[in-house]
Specification:
CATH architecture of the largest domain: Orthogonal Bundle
Helix content: 10-25%
CATH class of the largest domain: Mainly Alpha
Shape: elongated
Number of strands: 12
Strand order of the largest sheet: 1-6-7-5
Strand content: 15-25%
Distance between the termini: 37 Å
CATH topology of the largest domain: Helicase, Ruva Protein, domain 3
Number of helices: 5
């Protein structure tokens, strides 16, 4: 699933071709959002909020997309051949000289701007790690709520209601950097370690928002990632073989795989 840095990059790519431009044609999937309602309007802003993208128009409507596991936004010059089949397009915005196309996204909806503050998903988002106004104190306070005490720290880092923008890659990379097992309950993670993961996560997301491959390693460390996707390969810090396991962040959610070094990140002690 695209993470906050990916959405920030998408927003930065779409702004030059959309903001200030008049929409001359628009369409969505059959039975989906009535994108024809934005034809003739001008794009006022393109904004990433966590893992969500908001495109606002001067007629009071906002296009909200969430890319899920397989969605993506593409930009094309007018008349340029698309890199994916048109049947997979779920939102198309044409200006006089460019086209923005969203493929395969499960969430595509038009919202009145005045209704945005009441949107059940958007209003529940925590402070956004990709934005300059990210408030680490607000994020720590949310994570320290009693109802999250038993939550694994890796799972808590991607709880979008506590803080928005981190995803499965950071769920593994940030605990590794701080030598914390990703399944350690939040109640067993010190404030210092928790704050370090949040500060590091915000810094990495902002750096990776500029484009290029996502990098979480420092200069001199081979590869772009420490442990994510590297099951059975040597830890870049100690040489032990990296392991992984799937877990469900929420009972109804699909399982996601976490990665860690069993030497650098010893398993949390169990009671009983």
């Amino acid at each position: 699933m695209p993470e906050g840095d990916t959405l920030a990059r998408i927003a930065s790519v779409l702004r030059p071709i959309l903001v200030g431009r008049r929409i001359v044609a628009a369409r969505g999937r059959p039975g989906g959002a009535r994108l024809d309602l934005v034809v003739g309007s001008t794009v006022e802003s393109v904004e990433a909020r966590g893992k969500h993208l908001l495109i606002s128009f001067d007629n009071g409507l906002t296009l909200h997309t969430h890319l899920g596991l397989h969605g993506s936004w593409h930009r094309y010059r007018a008349g340029e051949r698309w890199r994916r089949p048109a049947a997979r397009a779920v939102a198309v915005l044409d200006t006089a000289d460019a086209t923005a196309v969203c493929f395969d996204a499960p969430t595509v909806e038009l919202i009145e701007a005045r209704a945005l503050p009441a949107h059940p998903v958007l209003r529940a988002l925590g402070t956004d790690v990709a934005r300059p106004e990210f408030d680490i104190n607000v994020a720590v306070a949310a994570l320290r709520e009693p109802r999250r005490a038993a939550t694994a720290v890796g799972d808590a880092l991607i709880d979008q209601t506590a803080l928005a923008g981190l995803g499965n890659v950071y769920r593994s990379e940030l605990p590794f950097i701080e030598r914390v097992h990703p399944f350690t309950p939040l109640s067993a993670v010190s404030d210092a370690k928790l704050r370090a993961m949040l500060e590091g996560g915000a810094a990495l997301v902002r750096a990776n928002s500029a484009g290029g491959a996502r990098v979480t390693t420092t200069a001199g460390t081979p590869g772009n990632l420490h442990v994510y996707g590297r099951t059975g390969r040597p830890c870049p810090r100690c040489g032990a073989l990296i392991v992984s396991a799937a877990s469900r962040v929420r009972p109804a959610a699909p399982p996601r795989r976490a990665y860690w070094c069993p030497s650098c990140q010893p398993a949390p002690a169990t009671s009983g």
